[in-house]
Structure prediction request, 636 residues.
Amino acid sequence: MADTKKVTFRVQRGETVQGQYASRVEEFEVEYGRSTTVLQALEGIKADQDGSLTFRRSCCASICGSCGMVINNRSRLACKTKVRELVEGIPEKNLQGSDVIEIAPQKNQPVIKDLAVDISEFYQKVDKIDPYVQEGKEADKQVTKSSFEQVNMVSNCIMCGCCYSDCTEMVESPDFLGPAALAKAFRFVADPREGHKTERLQELSEKNGIWDCTRCGMCVDACPKDVAPMEAITKLRTRAMEAGVTDNPGARHAIAFKNDIAKGGMLNEPMLLLKTLGVAGAVGQLGNALHLAKKGKIPSIFPHKVDDVHEVESIFKELDANPIEVETKQEDTGPGAG
Amino acid sequence: MAKKALNYAYYPGCAAKQIQKEADWSARAISEKMGITLHDMPKATCCGAGNLQEHDPAAGLAVCARIFSQAEEMGMDICTICNTCLQTFTFANERLKNEPELLEKINAVLSKAGVRPYMGTIDVKHLIWVMVDDLGIEEVKKHVEKPLNGLKVAPFYGCHALRPYEVFNGRGGQSPQYLDTIIGAIGGESVDYNGKDKCCGFHTMLVQEDTFLKMSGGHSLEAKREGAEIMVSPCTLCDMALGAYQARSEKYLGQKIDLPEMSISQLVGTAFGLDHKKLGFNRLHQNPEKVFKSRGVA
Prediction:
């Protein structure tokens, strides 16, 4: 191979024996050319240096979703990630180059061996949202092509688990359904043929569902197929509130903003707390409030009113009278598009 | 060459106007020192913080467009000190600039409400972007009177100035540098730790307090383990989560953290030799004075 260079792969290896995970880091020197992928480099290590290195792979074309792993601290598909880009950096992603490529198994899941993790919980959560269209009274009989502009994006999911691995909520709250399962749930809520849209939104609004997402955006960056799970979660929240599923702190919190903005312009933070949690919940916040009060951090219940706030009220009135459609759409870009 | 006049429509956000006033005070103080002029926006409302945008997406866009129109009328870009305001605005601005039909629809609503339409010409920036990209880090260095003498500072970037990277035009992304650049310029040493570009948990504070306290406390503990003497953030909401709520995390985790946390503007102000009272040190829950004294930054 002309034009090849060398780089160090630092691979986190290990296995779980009787429930106990033991890991070690091993270094391999790897030759790479212009188009060498991380997966090809790992195949090279397995062929020439250490045949016991374990990882999943199949299609080598970012379709099967098998080779998701943590590469330089982010979950990526090994077959879609070029070694050269990691070494040189990717300016448009503001990713700086790196002398060493660090490889580790996906996070938020138990490791079986080396880079292969146990994906059963990930699949159980997808299963939990009933990933199929159900018959029922909310099913539309007619399906237009444009109705799929909502679900196209989410249909691209290849279940690689990269979003699940990088999810910050999952780290502290392992029962959270997670970005992939929620994105999949949106695919069915947005499908005109689905018969139980409201029931789905009710279930998704419960604990470990749509309102537990931190909106950190890690899943959007992690997804190799541009599914943007966080955007799907946001849309589920919108649809849940539209369907009247509002008896939960997340929805009450979101709804409180509009009134505050229309009335005075700024948030009324003490009232926001009360509206979100109710009286009993707000009393439960007394410890936090007293703590904040020590440093004068208790906002006024009469926040400053901004100038010309009546304009905002007029805007909201106009939108109530003549609603406009602003939802983002995605054309079908997948295989078989057009 | 004559220096470019640096004028911005200043949008501190609801938190800085109420609970995190010290972030506002210190941002104004350091900007004045650097010759960055922050102009108030008396008509600006809350941005909606993503919450209005979830509840009523059209209203969310219109509220942002009304604020952008004010800045446009002032002939300035917006400068903010809250990451969530930054991201909410950036999401809206990105769409309004790239979807002409949407802009037209939103402008029709603004016009009916007697609001000047938005022409799609402004940019929304964080103060730390303004300092590095518009003013230049060499200019920042000129104002340092009390360098931090190698103080170990943990930068906490905050999700909403980083992701999704596509909307921030190379200013967000996976290798953030703004805070590190500024910390280095004022004589500090950046501490690298896994949590620096993760989530403070603020947006789930009211929905699931235990997860939030574990998340925020965990980042502070990790930074401290990596040698941090102080933590800074460019976001008023991260400040609240990691600073004001730190003792609540300690109580929940049953573990002392004791890592002073402050807004990046307060740290820059300290290096500029500004009065600590003016920078709002008395409103911080962990007193940073001991740490500064130990490094001879009195």
Remarks:
- Chain B has a mean pLDDT of 96.
- The first strand of chain B starts at residue 6 and ends at 11.
